[in-house]
Write a structure and sequence with these properties.
About 45% of the residues lie in helices and about 15% in strands. The strands form three sheets. A four-stranded parallel sheet has the order 2-1-3-4, with helices on both faces. Strands 6-5-7-8 form a four-stranded parallel sheet, with helices on both faces. A four-stranded parallel sheet has the order 10-9-11-12, sandwiched between helices. The model has no long low-confidence stretch (mean pLDDT about 95).
Length: about 350
């Protein structure tokens, strides 16, 4: 459905400086003043449109700070966003993240309209495996249950027994009650999970194109040269995780910082995450080995505005696929969040 509202493009008004003084100050550590003033007309227009539409804007931790802090009503990791979509009251969700996140929201809230600002926002893990690959693996390992990472298409989820995220992967695997589990598609997350459970895992060859670039020597350099604590996402290669003080989902990283309050930290994950946390924890010094996710970066203030204005890019999932994927996602939601941050 496309409804074009007759709205002018957002432009600067002097009152914005005062209306958004608090946000400008919060963002000052990350975004130069001049740049914030370029974002403010869009932020203001989106916030107004959001109210008119009764929409809820959800943003993943890897969204850039002007989105994460400027327009999001709900922020979090992929598990948090899926939980929020399942519980959300609004009939319109705009998801600032990648396509599999918007698809999960639609599957869990089928009666709602879920918009994604850019159809280009994919994921190298999600595109590493197809539903046919899962059926083949099942034939090769008869009777072995399949746990798929949330970073997969709806069609792959529909072929899975349960979904997990980095916030509950070990517990979801163990909840299958089987000695052996097919774990898809991230081989590095799979190896991390395998190191923490007695369940034997059959792994796939998927990798995150962002996290696979980090190296153990970069991690050691951050610790030795900058005396930084190291926090890493489990999609990183095993040698990187071996160097880390803490390994967890994007939300758990924030909680760890809140508890540990390190003087200096290197966040070994997507780059925008450190920008967002720097706004939240101004006393902590962040060493930022910067790898940006090109897919997350497809989401911008102008395309969020256009999506809300024109109700553009509504996500749709065929009901037979959605029904089976929903059962697998609900199995994950029943397990919930299991990360301990210490
Ligand atoms: P989280 O589940 O930690 O949010 O991670 C999702 C993701 O895509 C990381 O690359
Ligand atoms: Fe996918 Fe990696 Fe981007 Fe996360 S950071 S969305 S896993 S490509």
């Amino acid at each position: 459905m496309t409804v074009l509202l007759d709205l002018p493009l957002p432009t600067w008004r002097d009152e914005l400086a005062e209306e958004y003084a608090e946000l400008t100050e919060r963002l000052a550590s990350r975004i130069p003043c001049l740049e914030v003033s370029m974002h403010l007309p869009w932020i203001d227009a989106i916030n107004r449109l959001k109210k008119q539409r009764g929409a809820v804007v959800m943003a993943h931790s890897y969204q850039s700070p002007e989105i994460f802090h400027g327009v999001a009503d709900v922020t979090g990791d992929s598990l948090g966003l899926a939980q929020a979509a399942a519980e959300c009251d609004s009939g319109l969700i705009l998801l600032c993240g990648v396509h599999f996140m918007a698809e999960s929201a639609k599957i869990l809230a089928p009666e709602k309209t879920v918009l994604i600002p850019s159809l280009e926002a994919g994921c190298s893990l999600a595109s590493s495996i197809t539903a046919e690959d899962v059926r083949l693996l099942r034939r090769r390992h008869p009777g072995v249950p399949v746990v798929s990472y949330a970073n997969t298409s709806a069609a792959v989820k529909a072929e899975s027994d349960a979904i997990c995220t980095s916030a509950n992967a070990v517990q979801v695997v163990e909840s299958m009650g089987a000695p052996k589990v097919i774990f898809l598609p991230d081989q590095f997350l799979g190896r991390h999970v395998a190191s923490q459970t007695k369940v034997e895992l059959v792994l796939w060859k998927g990798r995150c194109e962002v996290h696979e670039k980090f190296t153990a020597s970069q991690a050691r350099h951050a610790r030795e040269q900058f005396d930084a604590r190291l926090v890493a996402h489990p999609e990183c290669p095993p040698a990187v995780l071996a160097e880390a003080d803490f390994v967890g989902s994007t939300t758990a990283m924030g909680r760890w910082l809140e508890q540990e309050k390190p003087k200096r930290v290197a966040l070994i994950t997507e780059c925008s995450m450190a920008d967002n946390l720097r706004v939240q924890f101004p006393a902590i010094e962040f060493i930022k080995p910067c790898n940006l996710c090109p897919h997350m970066q497809q989401i911008t203030l102008p395309n969020i505005y256009a999506a809300l204005r024109d109700l553009r890019h509504a996500v749709d999932v065929a009901e037979d696929v959605a029904e089976r994927a929903r059962a697998a996602l609900q199995r994950m939601l029943a397990v919930g969040r299991c990360e301990a941050v210490r």
